[in-house]
């Protein structure tokens, strides 16, 4: 009897050993998987951080580009309601020079160059790389326009964080300044104001043919509660013997001859 019992115990001990080895293998596999998953999560988090940093840098470049466009000085004035190709070329040249003179972050901006892509040929101005928030993130601005559409300046901002790159862009049209919206009445032609009219605000006329008369004519019963503005110089009025006079309610002069 005793020999049979010993044999049964030895068999049970063998089964326990096999089950223990199986559990050891399972837990080892789980440990390896968890370690691998943890490493993958860290890599994903790092990659996402780079993506966000590159996108933030690109957005910062876009804001810098908008700032340059909003603060450019030296643009020519014109009495026309539309922008000609020559005027658009002047705006582009003036803007490029302004960007070079501004030299954001002390970076030298190369001169404009020509380019050709699948859309066509044109001019471009590319700034140097500017660091953003850290030494790893930076942005670069590219201003460009196509010969077929000289009145549209495109801005492409490229943000980078090591090997990750993000690009965003916008189009900017070269148009007349919206200062005209500050006037109660604005006209391209000669202006007549009659029949006891009252204008609540300044008026503006781009009439530039003094040989055909004054840009604004009004009767004595007309009231303009603001300034009268014209693109003509005093010399233009004098050459055509045009006199502008403003009268008060008693028909007495308010200003001098050309006031």
Feature tags:
about 260 residues; alpha/beta; six-stranded antiparallel β-sheet; three-stranded parallel β-sheet; 3 helices; 13 strands; about 25% strand
* Low-confidence blocks of residues: none
Count of separate DSSP helical elements: 3
Rg from Cα: 38 Å
Order of helices and strands: HHEEEEEEEEEEEEEH
How many beta-strand runs? 13
From the helix content, strand content and strand pairing, which structural class follows?
alpha/beta
Query: How far is the first residue's CA from the last residue's CA?
Result: 135 Å
**Approximately what portion of the residues adopt beta-strand conformation?**
25-35%
What value does the average pLDDT take? 80
Helix content: 25-40%
Largest sheet: 6 strands, antiparallel
What is the overall shape?
A: elongated
Task: Describe the structure in your own words.
The chain has 259 residues and is α/β, with parallel strands linked by helices. It is built from three helices and 13 strands, in the order ααβββββββββββββα. The strands form four sheets. Strands 1, 2, 3, 4, 5 and 6 form a six-stranded antiparallel β-sheet that branches. Strands 7-10-13 form a three-stranded parallel β-sheet, with no helix packed on it. A two-stranded parallel sheet has the order 8-11. β5 and β6 form a beta hairpin. The longest helix is centred in the N-terminal third of the chain and has 70 residues. The model has no long low-confidence stretch (mean pLDDT 80).
